[in-house]
Fold this sequence. Notes:
Layout: E1 2-4, E2 7-9, E3 15-16, E4 24-26, H1 33-36, H2 41-45, E5 51-55, E6 66-70, H3 80-84, E7 90-92
Antiparallel strand pairs: 1-2, 2-3, 4-7, 5-6
Amino acid sequence: MLTYPHGYIDGQGREGELMRFKLPWIDMVKCDIAEHCGQCGAAESCPTGAFHVLQGPSDFEPDAPCRTAIDFELCKQCGDCAHACERGAVKMV
């Protein structure tokens, strides 16, 4: 793998963003999990189970039936959650 200041090119010549120094961040305005409590692509794609959906309200959304959460001790900073979020609510920052 060749490294560059803002990303990398893998063995197949595909460009990608280097995410090992970034952590996932959830934009709660874009996230619609509180509306339907259904499947979350970001949570389903997390290989370590660090990104998950919790049942019950939070301090930020007391009326929400569920919410998303990230366990940063389990997170491997792979970026799979950001790529899997259909609404673009998860970013690696």
